[in-house]
Amino acid sequence: MSDAQELSKRTLTLERTFKAPIQLVWDAWTQPAHIANWWGPKGMETEVKTHDFRVGGRWEFVMRMPDGNLFVTEGEYQEIVEGQKIVTTADFKPMTEGVTLIVELTEQGDQTHFKFSVVHETEEYCKQQEEMGFYNGWGSTFDRLGEYLVK
After folding, report:
1. Contacts of 7 (CB under 8 A, 6+ apart)
2. 10 Å Cβ neighbour count for 146?
3. The domain containing residue 20 runs over which residues?
């Protein structure tokens, strides 16, 4: 099996086209004031605790669930291509740990094509995360992002 085939079996991907210019979508991903307005599924409030947006920089967001429980998410930026790509490690405690998030943006006129991939350590872990609601959870988050971008 090739590396690409093996990687594809450990990766879950969502794609969207946002009705917003690429710079606004980039800013929404990279500026704490924007992130706090859309990060997390509907019904969650997000506080940006740390956001050192540079390769090697760390980030930590705390989401408050509707029942009051806290959900901590954190990681370290691995690659940043200005206006195009973000790669970061990520832990979503206590549900998902040891994954890599890849955000890719492509300009399409006055809209932005968005590709979001999550790479898991093993194929089994990837399947488990999919069954736990990967597409619903991230889908809800990106619905919020899409709504936020057109405000």
Report:
1. 119
2. 17
3. 3-149
3-state DSSP assignment of residue 14? strand
The count of structural domains within the chain is: 1
Report d(CA 130, CA 150) in Å as an integer.
29
Rounded Cα distance, 15 and 83, in Å: 17
Whether the pTM exceeds 0.85: the reply is yes
pLDDT digits 0-9 by tens, 39-80? 998 888 999 999 999 999 999 999 998 888 898 999 999 999
Half-sphere exposure of 30 (CA within 13 A, CB side): 22
**Tokens 């740990």, residue?**
97
For residue 82 the two structure tokens come to 């200005």
Position 95 scores a pLDDT of 79
> Rounded to whole angstroms, how far apart are CA atoms 13 and 10?
10
Q: What is the CATH number of the domain that holds 50?
A: 3.30.530.20
